[in-house]
Amino acid sequence: MVLQEKLQLLRKENGYSQEQLADKLGIARQTVSKWETGQAVPELNGLILLSELYGVTIDRIVKESDECNLVLSARDDLDIDETIDFLLLAKRNTYAAKAPEVKPCRLGSHDLSYENSTGYKYYDTYLGGECFVGEEAVWLHDVPIWSMNYAGRVIGENFSGDFLKEALMAVPEERPYRGPEVYEKGDYLYHCQVSGEFIWFQGQEEIYYRKNKIYECNFHGGIVK
């Protein structure tokens, strides 16, 4: 396995998009792209950073003949960047977009779905209203590959579902879970904190109305293997 292929597999196996890896290493995303297409190779300092980040020796990164390639290829069918692109599109075309619900899969559940022609399918199902629990999941060719559970509640007056949907519509590529870190409109403030990466993460979102917290939601999830 050549270096450019191994660099791509290591990144995907560890759940990073090219942009997230670039941020971790303090380099431009274009540099990561050039590494993975063979237009450039990492310098020694870059290899050291990659070795520390992935927890593998530099030898195992640069050697073309390496038995660890079998391990690295365990999820080479999963393209993290492609999955994130689909997830963002799905989120912006379901709950946040006030899309119509589909037939519920459970008694009393609210369900929404989205799919494309390349084999990806997204499903969001939740129970409740002012107090709710739910799950979002993504399948590729009918195989589950990613999921996120969430639970939240309204805890104050003047809650606006429309404001929450506006915030969720602004879900960022670098944190494709709920809304952006901060979203404001009029008297409303949305705040979202996340720790971890796409493969394993947890976070909390809150809404404030005139500095009073009126809503909270916790979420966690990651890659399904």
What labels describe this entry?
225 residues, alpha+beta, 434 Repressor (Amino-terminal Domain), eight-stranded antiparallel beta sheet, 8 helices, 8 strands, 31% helix
Question: How is this structure best described in words?
Answer:
An 8-stranded antiparallel beta sheet has the order 1-2-3-4-8-7-6-5, covered by helices on one side. Helix 2 crosses helix 3 (29-37). By secondary structure, it is α+β, with helices and mostly antiparallel strands. It has 2 domains: 3-76, lambda repressor-like DNA-binding domains (434 Repressor (Amino-terminal Domain)), CATH 1.10.260.40; 81-223, no CATH class. The two termini are 23 Å apart. It is globular, with a radius of gyration of 20 Å. The protein has helices spanning 3-13, 18-25, 29-37, 44-54, 58-62, 69-72, 80-91, 161-169, and strands at residues 110-115, 120-128, 131-140, 143-154, 182-185, 188-197, 200-209, 212-223. A hairpin with a 2-residue loop joins strand 2 (120-128) and strand 3 (131-140).
